[in-house]
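Listing S7. Sequence submitted for prediction.
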Amino acid sequence: MGAGSTKRWALAVLGLVCVLPFDFISCDIPPTYGVVNENVTLSPSNPKSFTEVLWKKGKDKVIEWDEKYGPRDYGPFKGRVQLNTTFGNLTIFNLTSSDEDTYEIEYETGKETFVLQILERLPDPILNCSVIDENITVNCLIPENYDGNPHLINYSWHCPSAQCNNSFGSVMYFGKNDDRSQNVQCTIHDPVYKRTSSIDLTSCIPREHSRYRYCLIPAVGLTVIVLIVIGFLKCPKNNRTKGLGDTGDTPAR
């Protein structure tokens, strides 16, 4: 298990513990979300003027500042963080998955804790469909190469049919009597991004069914013509001649 997966597991466990009645854990800290390769700012809830500040990630120093020595950043955060020395805001640039952790600011009169959760950039969903007994099933899928937090992703659907209203799962069903010409949209969203993809239900119908439908009328017409020709060929020769050229009148002399 990688470091990033271990930290996500630890944060998930923390979230589970928070629903249990343990008084020694503070569970009223809403997570702050950041995105890989982007920036995030952690801001104290009661900004004030400081004479010295220390930010830590877990037990490790991130950056500290005092009036005498100025700011000093540490370890993997060196050159990648900025401290607002007036209000204590910490900005982290070029986020990586390893930045996910608990952070703490310490100042003269107290401290405050933050939970930073790092997300992968949300990809466009993939829509595919299948047909069984003329019923269409549309699946809204997350690409396999997405290495984010699928448990944070929610779904919503948009289409003219009633079943798209207030539907939040990853699967949508359409019956035999539903409009097959409609466009169906699936939107996925996490706490930071949302992405939408769409599909026309006509594309869900197998091509051989479409070819059969469009070829049916010409096939029927061709069958009628063949039957007429066969019937004509079975007629006696003299009847065919009479039918084609003999009017039944006696030639004039």
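Caption to Listing S7: primary sequence and predicted structure tokens for the chain studied. The CA atoms of residues 29 and 114 lie 7 Å apart. The chain has three helices and 15 strands.
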